[in-house]
Amino acid sequence: MTTRAEALEEIAEQVRVCKLCRLYQYATKAVPGAGNPDAEILFIGEGPGYNEDKTGLPFVGRSGEYLDKLLSLIGLSRKQVFITNVVKHRPPENRDPLPDEIAACKPYLDRQIDIIDPLVIVTLGRHSMARYFPGGKITQIHGKPKFDADRAYYPVFHPAAVLRNPSWQEGMEADFKRLPQILAKVKETRASAPKRKPPQDDTPPTQLPMF
Ligand code: URA
After folding, report:
1. How far is Cα 132 from Cα 128, in angstroms, rounded to an integer?
2. Ligand 1 pocket check: which of 15, 42, 46 to mutate, most ligand atoms within 8 Å of Cβ?
3. What is the largest CA-CA distance in the chain?
4. Backbone angles phi, psi at 181, to 5 degrees
5. pLDDT of residue 207
């Protein structure tokens, strides 16, 4: 059976040779995503920047340092979560990813989500937010989770945007501090209505008594 780590590595290999949009032409390294394959929380950013393009790892620059600090506020490290982006190659000059680039990369992100099956998806900034909150305005909806049958979607500011707007810092930290509560709520929901099929019982069926 393929493990989650193997399935994610298979996607990463496809991403590294991907030419489905123009972005690979300008990039040094693809940045498929990194972290714990069994993560309960998945963070989705925008796209690799300068440092990520050099290393092949997500959020390793200044905004990555800030993300680490935010995670430490709730006792987490990046080893416990999974971090990826809506586009896996760096847009030139760090411009916004274009809609056709996001669409071309979507199947990779969809598969990463299916494999990890996170309890909470935290969207970092506008581009990943738009997947789950189309038409939403980040300044209005940050910190307001949306729950479905077995997952929460949680929009927060992009760490780089907070670094540029220090007045958002307090709100960002408050949003992060709400994460454990959101996670606990999803765990409760999943416990009362488990999504995954229980392990197959392979004892042969027995004849039920007639009466
Ligand atoms: N900003 C992003 O959105 N993603 C990264 O990986 C780094 C910076």
Report:
1. 8
2. 46
3. 75
4. -65, -40
5. 40
Give the global pTM: 0.91
Rounded to whole angstroms, the Cα distance separating 88 from 196 reads 29
Tokens 């945007």 belong to which residue? 161
Q: What's the burial of 6, exposed, middle or buried (CB within 10 Å: 0-12/13-18/19+)?
A: exposed
| Segment 74-122, tens digit of pLDDT | 999 999 999 999 999 999 999 999 999 999 999 999 999 999 999 999 9
Angstrom distance (rounded) from CA 189 to CA 185: 6
- Ligand 1 pocket list (CB less than 6 A): 31, 45-49, 52, 58-59, 63, 85, 160
Instruction: Report the 10 Å Cβ neighbour count for 191.
Output: 8
How far is 188 from 43, CA to CA, in rounded Å? 21
CA Rg value for the chain: 19
CA 195 to centroid of ligand 1, rounded, Å: 31
Burial class (CB in 10 A: 0-12, 13-18, 19+), 8: buried
Amino acid at 58: P
How many other C-beta atoms lie within 10 A of the C-beta of residue 139? 9
Q: Which structure tokens are listed for 116?
A: 């990890």
pLDDT at 201: 44
Closest CA to 44 of 118, 104, 101: 118
